């Protein structure tokens, strides 16, 4: 049973990846926007790093996680869009008639979305290195940043797939991911937590899981192996992934029961 699920998931993930590659304009704009954010923020706000609270940290390394997370949010819609397209053209119904695992039918597009983000994050990192990025923890730190990115991408893709299965509507699936964009700005997006003056924004940043994703990446890029901060980021990923993938699984079960 376990091998069957793995095989089905691999086949359906591969199919979703190939489908995405055939329509590159579904992900290229999101990649370009994320790179644009990186270039604009670095050139326009880098002077902030001279403040004492930054401790001399490179602002490029500080702002890079924002570009990565924005790519995760923007790219998450791909998983939902793929499922909606399969529903609209009847392929989803045909899949339900096959022996394929119901879980793999959901996981295929989600994993494909996660892999898409891995490629996007790699390209963003290459651009950042060309801009002069220095990583305190070296190559191992870059791998950790990639791991955090794909974990966060998995969480967003799960949510997008859940909305797609629940609504069976392409516009709703795409719009559903937009609620996550405020999470970026209700966090330590441009300055450290210590420099946030509004008390309500501090509270929002404290309960916002995006804050811990930012902090874990920035710790690896700037401070080194501070395991407590890195661990909080991975814990946030586990919690959010559990919620979103459970949501996707429940939505899939209801979609199957409705036929």
TrEMBL record:
Statement: the UniProt record of this protein carries the keyword Acyltransferase: no
Membrane spanning stretches: 21-41, 61-84, 105-133, 139-160, 172-193, 233-252
Pfam families per record: ABC2_membrane
Coarse class of the protein's main subcellular location: membrane
Domain ABC transmembrane type-2: 25-255
GO CC annotations on file: ATP-binding cassette (ABC) transporter complex
One term of GO molecular function: ABC-type transporter activity
PROSITE patterns: ABC_TM2 (PS51012)
Record's keyword terms, sorted: Cell membrane, Membrane, Transmembrane, Transmembrane helix, Transport
Protein's cellular compartments: Cell membrane; Membrane
Transmembrane recorded as keyword: yes
InterPro entries membership: ABC2_TM, ABC2_TM_bact-type, ABC_2_transport, Nod_factor_ABC_transporter
Topology class, membrane: Multi-pass membrane protein
Family statement drawn from the similarity comment of this UniProt entry: Belongs to the ABC-2 integral membrane protein family.
Designated name of the protein: Transport permease protein
């Amino acid at each position: 049973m376990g091998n069957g699920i793995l095989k089905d998931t691999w086949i359906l993930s591969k199919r979703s990846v190939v489908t995405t590659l055939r329509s590159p304009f579904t992900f290229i704009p999101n990649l370009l926007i994320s790179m644009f954010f990186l270039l604009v923020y670095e050139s326009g706000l880098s002077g902030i790093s001279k403040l004492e609270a930054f401790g001399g940290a490179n602002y490029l390394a500080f702002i890079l996680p924002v570009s990565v997370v924005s790519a995760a949010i923007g790219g998450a819609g791909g998983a939902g869009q793929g499922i909606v397209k399969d529903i609209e053209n009847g392929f989803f119904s045909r899949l339900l008639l096959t022996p394929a695992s119901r879980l793999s039918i959901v996981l295929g597009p989600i994993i494909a979305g996660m892999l898409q983000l891995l490629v996007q994050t790699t390209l963003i990192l290459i651009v950042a290195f060309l801009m002069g990025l220095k990583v305190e923890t070296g190559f191992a730190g870059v791998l950790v940043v990639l791991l955090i990115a794909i974990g966060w991408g998995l969480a967003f893709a799960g949510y997008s797939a859940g909305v797609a299965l629940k609504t069976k509507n392409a516009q709703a699936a795409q719009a559903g991911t937009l609620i996550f964009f405020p999470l970026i700005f209700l966090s330590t997006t441009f300055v450290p937590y210590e420099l946030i003056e509004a008390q309500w924004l501090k509270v929002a940043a404290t309960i916002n899981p995006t804050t811990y994703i930012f902090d874990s990446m920035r710790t690896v890029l700037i401070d080194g192996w501070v395991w407590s901060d890195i661990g909080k980021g991975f814990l946030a990923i586990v919690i959010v992934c559990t919620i979103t993938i459970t949501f996707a699984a429940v939505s899939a079960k209801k979609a199957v029961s409705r036929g």
